[in-house]
């Protein structure tokens, strides 16, 4: 706290003490607003007849955002969760004693409740003529005066409550996020999916290639892992007889921080029996289109960071090889064997790790040369089986997985595949992952005996997908960093 800010805190505490000494409660809990400020503005914003306005009884509460005193008259701007509105407090209306002992000691940031009637000022502004008021909460710290500068970005994330107080557009963003999640949930339920909850602490991390967070359960005296994905538990439910399940879930991955990565993030995963990745493409496309229309007033073109993204279906569908040819200037021959892939990597100055097989090299080339160029909605399909340890093999080519990923705005938004339901094949792939882990790959999967046991009881043909909620919200709110769409993102230590 700066010296200036500390001095203001001292002054505010002195005002609080004076108010309490006068016998006034500084933090009462018996005021109940009967209208929101937005309701008043919507209902009476166009009313010019002063006689009618004077009959409108007002009982509202809000935080003081501006104070302008003119001796016996003070104008205050109140803000609640819906809007802002001016109130006028006259000494003779509320009583000289209360005006001087309480109202004159209020500051920007304080919460008050007011009763009164509506009128228009000489400038035509709709205003509440206050007859009674009460202090609801005294703010002991001053609000920041200058908030929009780049130097305050870190503080905005660390003290999100201040960000929400001072920047109404941030509240609007998180209200939009809530609408997005709500619409996704409604679409899933409309399509017969059952919402479920699966564990967030796993004895074995699984469902994704990622490094987990490790914790310890004292009573059980065992290590547990924060969930990196709910996939294996959701597929156990398909084994158990549910045919359509979904979960809007928090996942945790012990990875770096970036504009697109936060160690704690939100996904929606769903699984459906008797479908495949082709049908899932159509479903994901339909779901995202409906969400866009819901939050974008029916429009399918969204502006994001200076780029117009057109969500009008059908969306492009490309294989990894086709994407390299179209967006990276590769020839088809360069994408079909290791010699060509190595040549393509050399052409672009990419270092090739010795442990990469052909599939991993192909994927690395795609992620390096193509991914950020996929601004318009694009499905990339037919991934190598070696980088898809939970996917079903293609019937036409066993080296290819029945899998797709959705890219929008240069970001991966969804990952989906026809699920591998052959327990012997899955066990072999787990063994391959264990070998990679023993060779030093911290993100490789563990061997999950119980999941293999579940598959041995028989899982019907199934398709599943995961959709990144945070990134979808970023796209639909014109946000450039994931921290903008997470209320309390992880931050590096100030030290």
Structure description:
Mean pLDDT is 93; it is low at 147-151. This protein folds into 2 domains: 3-137, Nucleic acid-binding proteins (OB fold (Dihydrolipoamide Acetyltransferase, E2P), Beta Barrel); 165-315 and 376-484, BirA Bifunctional Protein, domain 2 (2-Layer Sandwich). By secondary structure, it is of the alpha+beta class. It has helices at residues 3-21, 37-44, 50-53, 91-94, 96-101, 153-158, 160-166, 168-190, 231-239, 277-295, 320-328, 338-347, 358-369, 423-438, 449-456, 469-476, and strands spanning 57-70, 73-79, 84-90, 111-120, 126-137, 194-195, 201-202, 214-217, 222-226, 244-252, 264-273, 301-304, 307-310, 316-319, 378-381, 403-408, 411-418, 462-468. Helices cover 34% and strands 24% of the residues. A hairpin with a 2-residue loop joins strand 1 and strand 2 (73-79). Helix 14 runs antiparallel to helix 15 (449-456). It is elongated, with a radius of gyration of 29 Å. The protein contains 16 helices and 18 strands. The chain has an 8-stranded mixed β-sheet with strand order 6-10-11-18-17-16-15-14, with helices on both faces. The chain has a 5-stranded mixed barrel with strand order 1-2-3-5-4.
Mean pLDDT, rounded to whole units? 93
- Count of individual domains: 2
Instruction: Please work out how many helical segments DSSP would assign.
Output: 16
Major pleated sheet: 8 strands, mixed
Which ranges are low-confidence, i.e. pLDDT below 50, for 5 or more consecutive residues? 147-151
Through-space gap between termini: 16 Å
CATH class of the largest domain: Alpha Beta
Q: What do we call the CATH homologous superfamily of the largest domain?
A: Bira Bifunctional Protein, Domain 2
Radius of gyration: 29 Å
